[in-house]
Design goal:
The protein has 272 residues and is of the alpha+beta class. The two termini are 19 Å apart. Strands 1-2-6-9-12-7-8 form a seven-stranded mixed β-sheet, sandwiched between helices. It is globular. It contains seven helices and twelve strands. The longest helix is centred in the last third of the chain and has 13 residues, at 198-210.
Length: 272
């Protein structure tokens, strides 16, 4: 798991040694306590103009919903390294910690490459994109009596699969390393086409996975970046790649097309 406060995601390409494959700093090991601390750090002092990034590539699961705010009766969860003794992190907690405090003018982009991650941030609006590239917005505000939006900011969550689905690691995209399919296709899309709109981003990622060849190779700095930072360690339980990515959104206002503004797609502001 990685959290960033930055002007551009090129920072993580320029400073790869900040993200070693074998972490030795005890405060950076993804335990439940450390992840919670990282959430607090991410939003601490957040103000208008800030751009926050939360990336998670790891285990995801579900637990029975106890407060009746889930359509399917299950809360989505992140599984820290010590979840077997300390427990999982529920979507309700993630929403309360990094979504609701987001002030007007601030943006949060969450990239969640995990099983059961469709609504992991519990945001009010969901855009589902199917295998054919068609999308549909859903309004989930009626599911909960608790406010799940921001404090005026914009929160965007990109999820690898729906709540009831699993995802997997694959070598089909990198050619020589096991990577999270969603993470890899996300970075490839941003590198190849700067200034993407959200809709174009989702379709590009979907096409990359659909057209993946068993030994395709991505060259350039992104390749070493993937191997160092985003090689995931989790075991997945699916035998194929899901292409129906989820775009989840919370905003102060929502345009008629569900884009959080004036009804047109907005350019994504994560630039490599």
């Amino acid at each position: 798991m990685y959290t960033f406060k930055m002007e551009s995601s090129s920072h993580i390409l320029e400073h790869p040694n900040q993200f070693p494959e074998e972490e030795t700093d005890p405060l950076r090991i993804p335990t439940k306590r450390n992840i919670r601390m990282a959430f607090q750090w991410l939003v601490q002092g957040c103000r208008s103009g800030d751009s926050l990034v939360f990336h998670y590539s790891g285990h995801g699961s579900q637990l029975r919903d106890m407060n009746r705010d889930e359509m399917d009766g299950y809360d989505e969860t992140l599984c820290p390294l010590d979840y077997d003794t300390e427990g999982m992190i529920l979507d309700d907690e993630i929403n309360a910690t990094i979504v609701r405090p987001l002030p007007h003018g601030a943006k949060l982009h969450a990239i969640i490459d995990a099983c059961h991650s469709g609504t992991i941030l519990d945001l009010p609006f969901v855009c589902r994109v199917n295998r054919e590239g068609y999308y549909m917005w859903e309004d989930h505000r009626y599911l909960s009596t608790t406010y799940k939006g921001t404090s005026g900011g914009l929160a965007i969550s990109l999820s690898a699969c729906d709540d009831h689905q699993s995802t997997l690691d694959t070598m089909a995209l990198s050619g020589n390393a096991m990577t999270g399919a969603m993470t890899y296709s996300f970075i490839q899309a941003l590198q190849n086409e700067p200034g993407l709109t959200y809709g174009r981003l989702l379709n590009t990622m979907r096409s990359a996975i659909r057209d993946a060849k068993p030994r395709s190779q991505l060259n350039g700095p992104i390749a070493s970046f993937i191997r160092k930072v985003f090689i995931t360690t989790q075991v997945y339980f699916s035998n194929h790649i899901f292409c129906n990515y989820i775009l989840h959104m919370a905003a102060e206002k929502r345009g008629k097309n569900g884009d959080g503004g004036g009804g047109e797609e907005q350019p994504i502001d994560l630039k490599l």
